[in-house]
Design goal:
This protein is mainly alpha-helical. It has seven helices and no strands. The longest helix has 28 residues.
């Protein structure tokens, strides 16, 4: 049985579910905001322990990367991502998740050819672009 392209498109349109965009946006806002509030609480905690603001910011980044990697390893970050959608893409935690997820997926391939090689499949281009952009900006700044 063959159907035309128009018939197939009608078939798909009849069976597709409407996207709850308002609900998805609200959940992304709440989850992303919650991650940011957690980050601020962690930073306030580091400052309460006596770190200066810049050092507390660095310690906060390290803590958030660690927590994101840990939650990814325990398969909790992915569950949060299914619920909160784009809200889990808050830059530092989303980046840590993007580095750890492929490494976990390919751990059966071995440490070097699996985990280490696949760890940067998603994050590698981001790192390369960031380093390249910083060099170009530095050269421009130096020339000006």
């Amino acid at each position: 049985m063959e159907i035309s392209k128009q018939e197939y498109q009608k078939y798909v349109k009849d069976r597709e579910q409407a996207s709850p965009i308002v609900k998805d946006c609200a959940l992304a806002f709440v989850i992303g905001g919650g991650i940011c509030v957690l980050g601020q609480a962690i930073m306030d905690g580091w400052m309460a322990m006596g770190l200066e603001k810049t050092d507390a910011g660095t310690a906060t980044s390290i803590t958030l990367v660690f927590l994101s990697a840990l939650l990814t390893g325990l398969n909790l970050y992915n569950k949060l991502g299914r619920y909160g959608g784009a809200g889990t893409l808050v830059p530092i935690t989303g980046f840590a998740n993007a580095v750890v997820s492929p490494a976990i997926d390919f751990k059966s391939e071995g440490f070097v050819t699996g985990m280490a090689a696949k760890m940067f499949t998603v994050a590698g281009p981001v790192i390369v672009f960031g380093v390249t952009a910083s060099v170009i900006y530095g050269v421009i700044l130096m020339l000006l």
